[in-house]
Amino acid sequence: MKTAFSPSPIPPPGQCTCPKGSVFFRDSLPEEHKEELIQRRAKELQQHKARTTSVLSRLLFALPNSPLRYPIQGFIVRPLTAALIPGLALYAAQRDSYKVGMIPQRQQMVILTQFRMVSLSVSKGILTTKFSAEGVTVQGDGETELTVESNSLEVLNSLLSNMFYTSTVYHIHTGDLVSFTFENHEAWFPIIIKQPKMPVLYDMGTDISSHVTITTKTFVRYPQLKGWFAGRNLAVSQVTTKYFLWVDDDFVFTEKTKIEKLVEVMEAVPELDMVGGAVQGDQFYFSLIYEEGEDGDGGCLHRKSKMKFHSLPNYPQCSLASGVVNFFLARTDAVQRVGFDPKLQRVAHSEFFMDGLGSLLVATCSHVSIGHQRLKHNNQYIQYRYPPKTDGNMKKQLQFFKNYLKCVRFG
To answer: What is the pLDDT of residue 383?
Structure first.
């Protein structure tokens, strides 16, 4: 059985390809509301893109043999606060005069002038300098376009080392692109505008009970019809420990259920959000392969069972995946951010990991296991455990709209 992930080439832009055997969600839409739903979905996608994309997503290229030095990564400023731009400098051969320009990006490029400068502008920031000296001319100080001219390279670089950027629009996380030009050389570098977050820390205490809260689902949820995922949200919202362990009500703790070992993995790899174990020796896991596709049709998703990416460094018994079995240790705040969709009332598992794709870093481990009671279920349980076809249609319609999917393949 194939268990390792094989990298695939980047799909070309355009429509994504649904694997053979896929479920097409458009077929589940009610005919009388189909066009209206499609239009509302398209509108919501544009709203989503407006919230989640910025100039920081733009692809930039560094030209060879540039005499300009500038920050290429990690320059972060607070909104509406002046910050020194680090590392600006010009390295050029000796000449009578030097002239450089540095201008944040705008949507449209201005015509190239006779001074061989490219002028750009943006409403998100201004450039200022607190340096003054003889033999240097500054134009545009305190504006979106700034030009510096000097007959001394040393003086010019002293001024560049005292250049400040101030965003003029309050935003908690956005960015700006700065153009830095000299003669026919032009460089671009990003500025991240970000409101710092206060850390939210958990006191781990001294014993396992202060590390982990055990949460479980029970059959009681079914008669009330409030829903499994709504109950999960409520349960996780009450957790006060750093981690919680999710189990089913028919699981049995054994000598192999060493919660401490899962905590050890999570503490050793802080980037992880969730670690799954094995149930009755079955290490269920899967990987999600997602292509965004075109705006009009939506994306394509392939859920590949028993497919993992690669082993976790220093923990060969653990591997990275997209989803795990219903026995897992999770970082409380990470799962709270993703949440469980309360529209999914009865049977749902993969749907949570679909919502968490790109937000949750998940691993599966074979060295921690839990038992499973094999009980005879009564008719009432079976009635609610295996919902009618209408429930499946509702999930398809939900994924069509909420996840902007065209199709999904379960394999």
So the answer is: 64
77 C-beta neighbours (distance < 10 Å), count: 21
DSSP states of 240-267 as a string? -SSEEEEEETTEE--TT--HHHHHHHHH
- Residue pair 64/186 in contact by the 8 Å Cβ criterion: no
- Banded pLDDT at 155 (limits 50, 70, 90): confident
Separation between Cα atoms, residue 356 and residue 161, nearest integer Å = 43
A 10 A CB-CB count for 133 gives 12
| pLDDT tens-digit readout, 3-45 | 566 666 656 667 898 989 999 999 999 999 999 999 999 999 9
Angle at 42 between CA 36 and CA 349, to 5 degrees: 95
- What is the Cβ-side half-sphere exposure of residue 35, based on CA atoms within 13 angstroms? 1
3-state secondary structure of 228: helix
pLDDT at 61: 82
Stretch 212-216: mean pLDDT, rounded?
A: 91
Q: Confidence band (pLDDT; 50, 70, 90) for 111?
A: very low
Token pair 């201008």: residue: 103
Quick check: 232 and 340 in contact, CB under 8 A? yes
Closest CA to 159 of 144, 143, 148, 151: 148
Pair of tokens at residue 131: 């340096």
28: which residues sit within 8 A by CB, 6+ positions away?
A: 393, 396, 397, 400
Tokens of 15: 């429509």
- Cβ atoms of 408 and 23 within 8 Å: the answer is yes
Closest-CA residue to 319 (of 1, 4, 2): 4
Residue 194 has pLDDT above 80, yes or no: yes
